[in-house]
Amino acid sequence: MISTVLNTEIGAAGGSSALRKHKSISIGFCLLAGLLILGALLVPGFVSPQNARSILLLAAFLGLASVGQTLCALVGALDLSIPYIIGGANILLPSLMVAGLPAPVAMIVVLVLGTLVGACNGALSFRLQGQALIMSLGLGFAAVGAVQIYTSLGSQFGGTVFAPVPGWLRNLSAFNGKFFGLPFPPVIVIWAVIAVALGWIMHNTWFGRSLYAVGGSRTAAARLGISEFKVWTVIHSVSGAMSALTGMLLLGFSGGGFVGVGDPYLFTTVAAVVIGGTSLLGGAGGYGATVLGVLVLTVLTSLLVGLGLSFPAQQAVVGLLIVPMVAIYARSPHIRNQI
Amino acid sequence: MSATAFRQVTQDRSLYVPAGLFLVLLCAVAFRGQGLFTNNGLAGAILVATPLILTALAITPIVMAGRGAVDLSVGPLMGFVNVTLITWLVGNGITHPVAIIAWAVGLGAAFQLVQALVIIYVRVAPIIVTLSGFLVLSGVNLMVMSRPGGVAPDWMLSWGAGTSVFSPVLLLLLGAFAIWGVLRGTMFYRNLRMTGADERMAYTSGVQVDVVRIIAHMVGGVFAGLAALSYTALISSGDPTQGSTYTLQAVTALVLGGASLSGGRGGALGSTLGAINMFLISYLLSTFNFGTVSGFVTQMAFGLILVGSLLVNVFVISRRTVA
Fold this sequence. Notes:
The complex is a heterodimer.
Chain A: H1 2-42, H2 49-74, H3 82-98, H4 103-125, H5 132-152, E1 160-161, H6 167-173, H7 186-204, H8 206-216, H9 218-223, H10 228-254, E2 257-258, H11 265-276, H12 287-306, H13 311-329
Antiparallel strand pairs in A: 1-2
Helix pairs in contact in A: 1-12, 2-7, 2-10, 2-11, 2-12, 3-4, 3-5, 3-10, 4-5, 4-10, 6-10, 7-8, 11-12
Chain B: H1 2-11, H2 16-32, H3 39-64, H4 74-89, H5 97-122, H6 126-144, H7 154-157, H8 168-184, H9 187-197, H10 199-204, H11 209-235, H12 243-256, H13 268-286, H14 294-322
Helix pairs in contact in B: 2-13, 2-14, 3-8, 3-11, 3-12, 3-13, 4-5, 4-6, 4-11, 4-12, 5-6, 5-11, 8-11, 9-11, 12-13, 13-14
């Protein structure tokens, strides 16, 4: 009985959100194609293997950092701890390696710590709901502060850690990295694998569907026997783990630990989610949409760089474009139609 | 005035936590270092804390209007007023106090009016609009002024001296409180709380929710302009880079003060207490000597206090709903 209700429920929800997602995804593709054509016309050398490689590399970092933000947005939360966990992981990994831990063990330790911070975040912020983003901010501050205290004890360089980065980690995410002899860094493949896996999980598993159920209607989800608390905690843990992973991969990209490396990801992850078409109120969207959002954002940035715009001007243009982009497919109905 | 404040604290349970934390911090500060309770110490404290208090006040009406409208753009807006004041006005020889103050307040209100109109007529979620405002203004600030620099008008230099408690900066703060005090007595304030608590119900009850939202944003803009003036006095120059710091701190102060980011609950007293508590925390930690790691200890302690106070807040407020 319950399972019949459940199936029809999921079927109905899937149908309507698929329709809406379809629209946002086709618009996203049009945007992306338009930007690429514009780039090919305006910027010499825009369509080249080098540029494609650098766009995909930067998109991979943003994409990995946006996994957690997407999942959180699907249940109506925002995770502001992402930049701090990225920065923390970025300096904790080299200092653990300096302390004598073998690189793989150190990476696992960092990943586990990132997951733990995320889990704490989820468990503590569950009761707060609307205020959850401040809880994530607070935990982010606490985590990065603790990591910095640990790394700067016995060192005079606060916030920056120098350590030899192993060659394979460098190859993983450096611009001239090789994937089994092919001329692109493996981090792009890692991102693609995670994106496909996540897409499958979201659409074919009990957990993935319950994520949409909680985002769509909490009351209905609770009546279906879905543990809101579990969903909430698991997605925050995933967010923490993915942020830690991004921070470690960024170490291979830059070659030295720097705590501020995560700062640009505070609002760009939100922007990528929003441009992709995932509603920040929850229930609609998905990681596929975010991948599109990440690509649009990265190609746009690359185009603006090619046109000779400085970083502040790029930021202003991206900001100006967010509202019209979102307005295309995510306008809310007038209040008189909401009653 | 303190009598009304006291009555408000005893009546409103969401103010228990900020008020309690305030008293604890005050005792701790008194115990640790007496520097704060001298004339100079207090004057300096007012000077440093005022921009934060005013930015927290600036987002209070906007958050109270509901729909999850956290104004992320408030920090860069303050920075925008600051850098345009220094570059465009003072840079072109316009230093008359009336012109400067009118520019700051007018620019803040005008920007917030635009944001409110976009929220109402484009009908995109407020947080996306303010995120867009945040990105645009952060970029524009750096385009107007690429690095911190410039000088404040001559008459403002003495404001930042921090030698007297009754400085013009305190007047800015009192002015903002006075505006809020007047608003509290009006119909607008009731409509604002109603709109924030349940917009549909407010609409069906005949409240003009669009007008309420516009006024809430413009009041917030006026406060942001005042915050920019006090910030300019504090640093005596222009700084395009502090926007995101002030946004995060102001939102934090708001929540520490017991306001709900989902709307309907909050007020000037809570936001002020939250901002003062944040100042006291960093002041208190600066009295300890942590050597090279002191900045990190401050950050960590700050994060933990934020977490703790949110948890206590939940406990207090959830008991209220049960009762």
